[in-house]
Amino acid sequence: MCLAVPMKVIRIQGDNMALVEIEGIQRAVCLDIVDESPRPGDFVLVHAGFAIHRMDPEEGERQIAELERLLSG
Amino acid sequence: MDDRHPYRDPRHFDRLLSRIHDLPLSSPVRIMEVCGTHTVAIARAGIRGLIPSRIRLLSGPGCPVCVTPVEEIDRAIDLARRPEIILATFGDLLRVPGTDSSLLEERTRGGAVRIVYSPMDVLKMAQAHPDKKVVFFAVGFETTAPAIAATVKRTRETGIRNLFFLSALRLLCPALVRLAQDPAVLLDGLLCPGHVASVSGIRCYAMLATRYRIPCVVAGFEPVDLLQGLFLLLEQHVRGEAEVQNQYLRAVRPEGNLRALAVMNEVFRPEDARWRGLGYIPESGLRLGGPYAELDAAPLAPRGPSSSGEPEGCLCGEVLRGVAEPPACPHFGKACRPDKPVGPCMVSSEGTCRAFYKYEQTRGTQET
């Protein structure tokens, strides 16, 4: 139920919706509850037709760095 | 960060696995996850069979369909039987047995039961059927509740008069506190639900770590996420510490999604609510409040007595608390199978029994 998938924003549409894509599948998702307004090219976490989080590239890099630190430890 | 590949990299996975095997674990360690999506991801990645047998991975009450008590299902069935109503809900709920029927049976008998992927779908449904009342039967946790709340707000803003919401939404945090207080449930670590935390932040887990001395790690859902989360938990256990760590940085901010929480709190009010297996938990349910109360479908369908029957012998309640594993149930794999489920833990694709049946059966049960 709490499945959420990172999807790439293709474009922002009217009515506070965005067209997003993953592996060639496109969907319109609602932006009413997303934490930060995404721009085309951003990744958002999508749950039940709603973007719930704009994925921050810096946080992604920090996570990879943490993983690498752990694996080299 | 632009894709999920680093978190599916088998080299990272193997190295984490060997780090876990290197940890000096002197006694059995009980780790619980409380997210149905974790349940399935762990089973699918085969993690139980790869980690040391001293580590027991338990599933908690993390499947919203499974924790929804029978009387809530009966209520939705009651509505689906009425000719003036279209009942819309998530697909997972259709086969959950009520006291004497299921939503699937009602649909087969001609009841208007519709599956939706997004709660937003019900707006168009209501507009397309002005002569009917459309009721959205909502289950889910903090991840889902803001999406429902946003749909409720849009219903009111667009002036749709024939759309109502029956909420069996639950808040996971109060249930986790209940588990932490349960003497039968001894936990050495909690793998915390990444997408619930994406919305509600890490405050709840920080409290569990401080007050109940349970190591907590918020983790993602890819194989590397899961093993990294597990490693961090075990490392805390070995050090004798209990704190909250956030493995899922790419999706979880410490404070959560404040905008989603604001929408949820505008539309819903907490209420005492019953959970299958856990009983009544104060302020763990959500009902429509304030100006949104007029969209509440609850007055259309009075709730029946809460004692109404759990299937006889079904251990779903114990499984949901992590005090029994699926094979301990007399029905598991016999009377209760995915094609003919007895209890909700076998119905939902995220149910512990269903995941166990699908992925873990051949491996047998872990030692106690």
Q: What structural class should be given to the helix and strand makeup of chain B?
A: alpha/beta
- Give the topology string of chain B: H per helix, E per strand: HEHHEHHEHEHEHEHEHHEHEHEEHHH
Give the tally of β-strands of chain A.
5
Query: Averaging pLDDT over every residue of chain B, what do you get?
Result: 93
Q: What is the share of helical residues of chain B?
A: 25-40%
Largest sheet of chain A: 5 strands, antiparallel
**What does the radius of gyration of chain A come to?**
14 Å
Shape assignment of chain B: globular
Protein described:
The complex is a heterodimer of chains A (73) and B (368). Helix content of chain A is 22%, strand content 44%. Chain A has one helix at 57-72, and strands at 5-13, 17-22, 25-30, 43-47, 50-55. The longest helix of chain A has 16 residues, at 57-72. The termini of chain A are far apart. The relative contact order of chain A is 0.21. The mean pLDDT of chain A is 94. Chain B has a five-stranded parallel β-sheet with strand order 2-1-7-8-9. In chain B, strands 4-3-5-6 form a four-stranded parallel β-sheet, sandwiched between helices. The radius of gyration of chain B is 21 Å and the shape is globular. The chains are: A alpha+beta (73), B alpha/beta (368). At the A-B interface, β4, β5 and α1 of A face α1, α8, α10, α12 and α13 of B.
Features:
heterodimer; A: 73 residues; alpha+beta; 1 helix; 44% strand; B: 368 residues; alpha/beta; 5-stranded parallel beta sheet; 4-stranded parallel beta sheet; 16 helices; 11 strands; 38% helix
Write a short abstract of this structure.
With 73 residues, chain A is an alpha+beta fold.
Spell out the blueprint of helices and strands.
The complex is a heterodimer of chains A (73) and B (368).
Chain A: E1 5-13, E2 17-22, E3 25-30, E4 43-47, E5 50-55, H1 57-72
Antiparallel strand pairs in A: 1-2, 1-4, 2-3, 4-5
Chain B: H1 10-22, E1 29-33, H2 36-44, H3 47-50, E2 55-59, H4 64-67, H5 70-80, E3 85-89, H6 103-108, E4 113-115, H7 121-128, E5 133-138, H8 145-157, E6 163-167, H9 172-181, E7 189-193, H10 194-200, H11 203-212, E8 216-219, H12 223-239, E9 244-246, H13 258-267, E10 268-275, E11 279-288, H14 316-320, H15 344-347, H16 352-360
Parallel strand pairs in B: 1-2, 1-7, 3-4, 3-5, 5-6, 7-8, 8-9
Antiparallel strand pairs in B: 10-11
